[in-house]
Amino acid sequence: MTTLEGRVDVLDEVLTREKELAASRDRDLADMKVMLRSHTAMLQGLNERQSQQSATLQSHTAMLQSHTEILHSHTEQISQMRAEFQAGHQTLVGMLTTLINRE
Question: What SUPFAM superfamilies does the annotation carry (predicted)?
Answer without folding.
Answer: Spectrin repeat
